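G., the chain you wanted modeled:
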Amino acid sequence: HWRGVYRANQVIAKVPAITMDAILKARYIGEAKFLRALYYYDLVTIWGNVPLVLLPSVPSDKPSQATQEQVWSQIEKDLTEAAAALPPSYTGDELGRVTTGAAYGLLGRVYLQQKKYTQAIDALKWLIEGPGQPLYNLAPNYENNFRHTTENNMESVFEVQFKQRP
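Predicted structure as tokens:
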């Protein structure tokens, strides 16, 4: 998790200075913020108070623990910013990248974990009633969620992609 946080912080800190397409730049930063939020979600739910490192670290750093409230607040901020920068879907070779739906889905889960039910409803509405509704829905056959032939179906909010090597 810490290696993932370190790498996400590198992207968030260094990509803004790169001369490149603005939309692609925002997407990369949004993906990094989503991943940092995901790593911190696991860290705070498993260990509680953890260091909150938001800048690229160096070996001499000795970060102190943050409160759980500070970590949750940063996770919410990262996911909200990521959702605004990410596209709603991908196709082809880009399939499996982080989307707006993944950010709102995790944000809803973050709010539920903290018992912030009203905010969870608002975040999850994007998937169920909002712009994400045509992309996300219950599959007609529940078994399709467990078959390799029906990966990335309409129930898949964020799915890690695996490819077989020859």
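Residues 22-47 form the longest helix (26 residues).

Shout if anything looks off.
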